[in-house]
């Protein structure tokens, strides 16, 4: 066979050279022979920079670069120096390997000291032998393997490229990736700094110039002054506005300002193993440990997360542990799968941190967080919570016990504060709450059973189709089966241990909820009983800004029956020598006595009388419906006052 050859050799300085060679067959023949006869060679040297390319179509390819400065290429934010980049491919034997070594790599704010990559190709298997990223305080090691889909892969051969592309464009990219080949990877992190993981956040924080913010604030204040609003600072202005539009007795909650991601600091180490593809289950095992994490003013000493995840079985937690000083959070069990069995505990946890934790978990739930903060604002103390979560996502079940130690409600010290609750398999919420103050004898005891309705989410036809395909063709590698067997053995051992240690917890919970699961209740029926005695009134009035229980005797019994849509209230309340103060009244109400009844949603006051100072008196008598729809012509409350001074400015605003 005859060829035509083109060669180009150029020499500059002693360390500069360029050589190009092109070989092309002249004689006609088969397409394969023509391709085998082709050759393209390129060689360049300039100082330490070297580049060599040799390509023989359908046979082999070689690519090599040394000492290439990426800064001069100006490829977006890519920076660094390629010390060595080499790729060798043999298309006939379907083999190849490649290496990459970069000094001081940088991309989109990701800063590194060195990056080393080594990969190998053999038949249908592409192996990532080593990927090491070194940073100032961090080191990441990644290994992996990808098996290309072969002709025996049913899903790939039947759908073809057109079917895969159509599925990817319709939003099922994850399914496409899984069906195109099997993969596994392992990430080892011997040491890492959290701040180095957040380059994008750091990049955004650097882009905010403090001088620009200062000028914007000054311009805003000047604009306010131009319309007649004068203030020394923006903080003072907000206080003035708040004073105009906030009632004097309203509790003002300061906004929770979560720090930015750029303020997250701390160290961590651990490993992550993951596998999937080939229409098999996607699985991952993780073992992560963190120390001395800081996020603005928040900090933790230890963070531990050990467990596994799979699409079929959900999340299996061997251990979740978070420690901040004496406060700890524990969790272990299964979650987000067909069946849930999770045990959790929150120990020595300040109540004031609960809204912050909720906002961190669900940052978009601002209204729910604000309502939770308003509810917990008057409550102080150390929280102890332990519980079990069972059932499924569609129909969850839960048992939980909450205790508050060294607690206060509205400044009233608590001798006892305990709530036990259960969400049963029959979709009922059972609860039993007991509160007792220290300075006065008495209690607040509320227990009940309320039906719960869960909203069932619909499943799309596409999701059903994908799930069916996954069940028809499932691939599980041998190394995954062995690991799954080991993890199953560990889980069974751990389950036996948990069953032994939780016998006391289950017995205590059953005793607290004893008698609440009334089997005679109809579906949808509500049953709540409340019992308030003497000093328990202090705890109720502590939640209200308009009244404070000072002393006396009280006996309140309240029952709620009926349904959630149409509850029926019955009960009674008797008072003897009671005293109540209020910011609405100049003098407290003393020597309060009388009886109040609630009969089928109607408030009935036989006679309620009180004294105000030495000369003042107050009398109440009459009936009043609790629902406007149940009012009648004879319903009214008669009130008689003598020497009663009222200070109720803006109370109805």
UniProtKB/TrEMBL annotation:
<dbReference type="InterPro" id="IPR053022">
    <property type="entry name" value="Chloroplast_translocon_comp"/>
</dbReference>
<protein>
    <submittedName>
        <fullName>Uncharacterized protein</fullName>
    </submittedName>
</protein>
